Amino acid sequence: MRAVPPAASAEQIRDANTRYHDAAAHHYDSKWGIDFGETGQQQVRTKLRKALGGAQGGRARYGDSLEIGAGTGYFTLNLLLAGVIENATCSDISPGMLKTLASNAESLGLEVATRAADAEQLPFEDESFDLVFGHAVLHHIPDLPRAFAEFNRVLRPGGTLLFAGEPSLYGDRIAGVPKAFGRRLAPLWRMALRAGPAAPPPPAGSEESLEPVVDVHAFSPGELSRMTREAGFEHTRVSGEELVANWFGWVNRTLEHSANPDEVPWAWRQYAYHGYLILQQLDRRLLESLLPASAFYNLMLSARKPQR
Ligand SMILES: C[S@@+](CC[C@H](N)C(=O)[O-])C[C@H]1O[C@@H](n2cnc3c(N)ncnc32)[C@H](O)[C@@H]1O
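A: This is the predicted complex of the input protein with S-adenosylmethionine.
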């Protein structure tokens, strides 16, 4: 596991995460192509099935769920819409993200409880939930053993722990290649699309400049499963997803990032979004059964709290 950068203390990392995500909240869904329709529901169902493993994953249903680092609601709201969870609580260190989540829930006609909370100090009673889960959040948390102890405490005996969208060590390093390719291609790409360059980099101290501080870990499958077992969970399962789709996504995001967002044509955005979805299928149907978890960009984890 890549360690917390020594330049930032755990407190600074938590503070940077709060400010960075508060500032990102209003454009987060459009930046990441978050969908609450059939596509979004299909994506979260597929992730759940893959994380839990075939047969069990397809049938999973939960009463009380708690999402950690729920952001604008991508996972919880789609699981509610898909009928996988009944009563949802969403927590996040960023009140701004939870505000956007609450407004997304309202426009979808869904009821969700929200609570601003640090994953390392959850404001919930012991044994309150049947499912504790998260998407793309573990890599932001400074003290993971402390957070895993909290996940265990708030889960009921026999309850399920599930995380997806966590960067793998290897995938994170490889992602440097499509990003570098995108940077080199950017001037030519902007010329072809007649898009002007993006605004200059954010000044030091602004929220956007916090990006290098907020991501503190990338994981190997072995480390993720060891950490889960050491926190007292059983039936630990770690798998990987997204390889080619991710390379494609990083090239496109780097290109888009280099341009004035208002001048990136709609047709390009459609191509990038649908291309990504098609390559996700290729990864799922072909590569995920052939390659080891560590080869993929995203890792997913599931485990169970033992019965008493
Ligand atoms: C990459 S975003 C993912 C959001 C959402 N899960 C999704 O997949 O769209 C990471 C989220 O984790 C939250 N976060 C970061 N550090 C946290 C912490 N220590 N405790 C709880 N949430 C945290 C951030 O505020 C942010 O909303």
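Residues 14, 17, 21, 68-71, 74-75, 92-94, 97, 118-119, 135-137, 140-141, 165 surround S-adenosylmethionine (CB under 6 Å). Residues 75 and 194 are 36 Å apart (CA to CA).
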